[in-house]
Amino acid sequence: MATAAPPPGYVAPGHPHYQHRQMPRLGPFNPNKTHDDPERWICIYPAYLNSKKSIQEGRRIPKDKAVDTPTFEEMKMVLDDAKIDYILERKFYSRERSKELPYIGRFRIHLKDKEGEFI
């Protein structure tokens, strides 16, 4: 099975010329900003989706829709595959007991346009 050629100018993530997204400088919350501004994007931690956590420990979705111990790498792969704009910040969830690498990461996800409608 032949695969499609990558678009012109495409550089794979392992290549020496690959450049990561530059993190925009975020300011304080301002209600006058639109939903297109990163300060208004929705924040999600991996703990929100963890089926092994209780609601008191930070899970925010029903257990039957949660996944078993998600990592920031898995969430990043899903967001990349879905082509959703996001910013990965080096933050820990305040209710997370472990401060090890798999538990790091807060995603700011761009889900709404300027008018506040879901994309």
Q: Could you please describe the fold and organization of this structure?
A:
There is one protein chain. The protein has one helix at residues 72-81, and strands at 42-44, 86-89, 106-109. It has 119 residues and is mostly loops. The protein has a 3-stranded antiparallel sheet, with helices on one face.
List keywords for this structure.
single chain; 119 residues; little secondary structure; 3-stranded antiparallel sheet; 1 helix; globular
What's a concise summary of this model?
The protein has 119 residues and is mostly loops. Helix content is 8%, strand content 9%.
Low-confidence stretches: none
Strand content is 5-15%
Main beta sheet: strand number and arrangement? 3 strands, antiparallel
N/C terminus separation: 34 Å
Rg, please?
Answer: 17 Å
Largest beta sheet: what is the strand line-up? 1-3-2
Please write the string of helix (H) and strand (E) elements.
EHEE
Helix content: under 10%
Multimerization status: single chain
The count of helical stretches stands at 1
**Mean pLDDT across residues:** 80
Which structural class matches the secondary elements? little secondary structure
3D shape: globular
Please provide the count of β strands: 3
Topology:
Elements: E1 42-44, H1 72-81, E2 86-89, E3 106-109
Antiparallel strand pairs: 1-3, 2-3
